């Protein structure tokens, strides 16, 4: 029987730590086959992201992007995720698009932070007060329950709205000072010009970069990369596709050998000292949607029984 998994009911029963454990276990399986297909009509886009992992299953994540919806006060992005059995190809679940995206995106970053950030990290800065920033607050709170949080956003109004939802979060007026004071910096912006400067980074920090996803997008400058030990979720979906790494690699600022590991070598995700700066680039990918969907389906099935 095909399961229909909605946002609110499933969101309430999921666990960030369990998800990161599921993502780590998913990378012990054979590498995923992945494929993206785009269709366009005018300004509108249909994106299908597919993944197949032997022993786990198949998933197709369908996203519609209609920028004109903003003017009508409608969501710009909609979609759904279909999950299929690896044994016989049968449809096993249909999941809410936003549910999978939320947990996949923040969980991807949290897995790296659990392994790379100092366990005693207490000051966490979130850069970007959008939907992903809100998910990051929830995710990082689960792994660092004693931490205090600060939000910085380009617009003060956006930061103030964020603080309404999370009254325990302080608002930073100055990004440089906030970065210097943080143990963990997690950034989810749409920036094409680097916001975070290497000169601001301090020994022992962990930098988590989510926002950049196009070849022209970056959140940190060259100096930040050169001062850090760099990790990614998947070399194949980040190094040649996302400006955060593609641009400095092409310019000789860093070398491919400077990318220490991805999740298919997850045992390499460890600190060498309390003073080093670690940096993780979250690139996403359909394989992570599949792993996340499989985790959600398992939790949902257990609740139903």
CATH homologous superfamily of the largest domain, by name?
NAD(P)-binding Rossmann-like Domain
Could you state the oligomeric state of the chains shown? single chain
Low-confidence parts, pLDDT < 50 over ≥5 residues? none
Q: How confident is the prediction overall: mean pLDDT?
A: 95
CATH architecture of the largest domain: 3-Layer(aba) Sandwich
Task: Name the structural class.
Answer: alpha/beta
Shape: globular
Strand-residue fraction?
Answer: 25-35%
The N- to C-terminal Cα distance equals 14 Å
Biggest sheet, open or closed, and with what strands and sense? 8 strands, parallel
Q: Going across the biggest sheet, name each strand in turn.
A: 9-8-7-10-11-14-12-13
CATH top-level class of the largest domain: Alpha Beta
> Do you know the CATH topology of the largest domain?
Rossmann fold
Tell me the Rg in angstroms: 19 Å
Beta strands, count: 14
Could you state the order of secondary-structure elements as H and E?
Answer: EHHEEEEEHEHEHEHEEHEHHEEH
